[in-house]
Each structure stands twice: as C-alpha cells, then as structure tokens.
Amino acid sequence: MIHTYAGETISFDVIYKKRKSAGVYIDVYGNVEVRVPKGTPKEYVLKLLEEKWDWIQQHSKEMKDRMLGPQQKVYEHGQSFLYLGNTYPIQLFHDMNLAQEYAVFEQEALHIYVKELDDERIKQALKRFYYQQCKALVEKSIQSYQSNFKTKPRAIRITDSKTNWGTCDSKLQLTFNWKLAMAPKNVIDYVVVHEMCHMVHLNHDRSFWRLVGKIMPDYKESENWLALSSWKMTL
Fold it and tell me: Is pTM beyond 0.90 here?
C-alpha cells in the first residue's frame, strides 16, 4: 500500500494477525510493516502511520543508508561527521604558520585548523581529535564506575582496531577504539563497563553478563546502538 502525508509518500505492508495491539515495524532493509488485529479498519491503520510518521521517516532512511554501507567522506566545509552520537558540520581554517594541525569542537561544529586545505591533513587532524576525546571520555568513565570494582586497570590505551571496540587482557590492561568518541556517552560507558567487567571475568559466561547487567541494567540499548549505527563511525 501507499500513503502520502505531510508532503511525503511511503509504501508499506499491512499484516492482519490474531493480536490485541497494533504496531509499526521497520525491517533491516527499511521496509515498513504495520501489524494490526484482524478486522482493523483501514482508517485506523493510516492514523497510526501518521502518528508515527517522523519516526518512520527517520528509521527507514537509517536502515536504507545502512544497507548502502559507509560512503566515501568528503572533507569540505559543511560536511557532517559523528561526535558523541550526533552529526556536526566541519569548518575548515588554514594557516601556514600553525605549529600543530588540530581540531576542536566549538559552536556546534568541528573546527579543523590545517596548514593547507588537503584532505589527508584534514583527516589526520580530525583523527587526532577523536583519539584525544576518546582518551578523556574513557578515563572519565572508568573513574565514574571504578567504585563497582575491587581492582583497577593497570594501563589504558587508545588504538586503531578494525575488529574491537575494547579489550581487556590478563594483565588488566584496557584498550579502546578511538572511534568510540563518535558514539553517544551511554555507549562509551557501556564499552568501558564491559571491559572493566572482564577484569573480574575474562570470558563471556553468565557471571560476566550478570555483573554487566548489575552495573548497567539497560546495557542492551547501547549494544543495539552499536549494532545499528557502528557502520557510520568512519573517517
């Protein structure tokens, strides 16, 4: 079926089932499905769609974008990059006399200062920013949750991992992926708590997950965010 509302048109499927409630669902391909009890009038289905319209538009686009995968970044004024779970435009400034190329977050934008407006220079300045922010955010999070643990990390490192958001080895050394600075604060906290729990349980047995859940009862929300959004965390 097709429905137009607020100047936008979407296609959707209606599934009539033996159920008490109605709901709107979006699959991993961005397709919209309305599940309703048998005998539900079409007018009610359309009303439900309109009530959830903004949510449908946002999540349908996210799913479709996810299917396309990471797009090649363009390092120009106004291009958006993730920081703490939100997207912000970059603003570029060049100065041949700079002692060090760098980036800062100011006035709801990522300001990048480079000697030349060169893509690689811009990328590296931005990457250093994420490294620095990740280190500061992780250290603050560890400090916040340390009271839940008898042991302390012996070392904290920020790395460029292709496979892990964080690790904990048998020597209690914690390692975190610099891209975590792109994630929301609660997601960063979850990864930190996850790795700190490995200081107690090195594997992922039931005791480990019980400890994670005790410290952070809503940790699955952060896991879901990473599962759905990590593909966007690129430079």
Answer: no
